[in-house]
Amino acid sequence: MIREFQAADLDQVMNIWLEQNLLAHSFIDPSFFQKNTDLVRTILPSSEIYVQDIHGVKGFIGLTDLYISGLFIKTEYQRQGLGSSLTEKAKQVRSVLFLNVYTENEAAVQFYEKHGFVRLEDRINEETHHPEYLMGCKIDHIIKIGQCAL
Fold it and tell me: N-acetyltransferase domain: from which residue to which, for each copy (predicted)?
């Protein structure tokens, strides 16, 4: 079941955030995520967050305006449709979505492309100095892969 984030979810969400960042971004020094944990814990509750709750939080998506600030699923629940469900929830509440994804995180790039996101710009992340894509998706109609009406 997808529901809105509640304050009681914070510890579970933070555990998922840290664990999945470390696993998905092995090309980034782990201390980067560990040093940012307190900052994320502070700002996370002010974002619009939806959690996938199946007898506890198994994943979540965070939205800040038109931006997907994070999509994370516990390892043992990945590839079961939870990420797709959370992405669809975000599409229900927004007509346009943007996100940044590291180019080295090929699984995430493919996931977002499968869900209609297109690459808009190549960038270098200012904090980690790793290459990333700005991706976007206009929700109110189907876009051909490789095209974007943004």
Answer: 1-140
- Say how many domains are in the chain: 1
In-domain check, residue 103: yes
DSSP-assigned beta bridge partners for residue 61: 50, 71
Q: Which of 11, 20, 18 is nearest to 34 (CA)?
A: 18
Residue 129 lies in a domain: yes
pLDDT tens string 6-23 = 999 999 999 999 999 999
Q: Is 148 part of any domain?
A: no
pTM of the model: 0.88
Domain that residue 22 falls in: 2-138
The pLDDT tens digits for 66-122 are: 999 999 999 999 999 999 999 999 999 998 999 999 999 999 999 999 999 999 999
